[in-house]
Design a protein that fits this description.
Layout (H helix, E strand, L loop, with lengths): L1 H23 L4 E8 L5 H6 L3 H10 L13 E13 L2 E14 L2 E19 L17 H17 L7 H14 L18 H9 L4 H14 L7 H22 L4 H17 L8 H9 L4 H8 L5
Parallel strand pairs: 1-2
Antiparallel strand pairs: 2-3, 3-4
Helix pairs in contact: 4-5, 5-6, 7-8, 8-10, 9-11, 10-11
Length: 307
Amino acid sequence: MKKTIYKSIIITCLFIFCCSLFTATAQEIDAIVTVDTEQLTNEQLQNVENLKNDLEYYINSQSFLTDEWEGPKIPVNITIQLKGTGTNTYSANVFIVSKRSILGDEDGTSVAMKFIDRKWTFEYNRNVSLSYDKNRFDPISSFIDFYMLIIIGLDLDSYGELDGSGAFRIADNILSIASNYNALGWENTMSKREYGRKTLIYELSNARFDEFRRLMFEYYVDGIDMLTSDKEEAIDNIVNTISKMADFKERYVNPSNLLDSFFYTKSNELAELLNGYSKDPKVFRNLMFLDTPNTSLYEAARDGKKR
């Protein structure tokens, strides 16, 4: 009897252990990091020779959420333009691009979000050890964690209404902790006219912007994911969603980091999808209102001349 009990206990423990291993390896991100070192001295260059590998290993082996990740990993490309500012200290312009899988298209992806952050400063040594701690500020890992959580949240939002809220709350907490250290880019102040981490996470976490987050979900589920099954209806749905987005902007907010980031990311995709579209020409006026910097792109698409 005792042997049976002990055997059951051992089996149960092994099961729990295996489950914990599986959960721990359920990473969300598949990142490729590129480090541009053209502006560094030879000494600085030698010091950062492992930075690319250190960041890729950290991101690709890390689970940023406690929930088990379902579905494919999110492809992310990170390009870091480094400048040396002192002994082992650096500033960087960072370009981050994430993609989102298209349902019904096994190999298809849609560019989900592009970010340009020009305010990253940190100290780096070749023997650095990066660890994930959402309650501790680290100039390197906190920056990476913040953006990976934003990307994860946006990916979740694209499959379920407001499903990314948990990830955004963690990112907001990281910013709140970082703001106590007076580090560049982590200021706890907002500027709608200038891109900033605080403004972006505020908009993603504020109920006022829930409507736009739901419209981004609609854009994917009723639009992008339907392209392979019914392209005409999918494009009509996208046109309808764009109309709702224009109405949201007119009623509630102008300008917005979130809206600007979305259309900075989606401008080429939208122009290609709507190239020569004539059912509802108002869609192009809406796009020019939502994304004025790309007016010429939408004019070309309206005229069927997008290349």
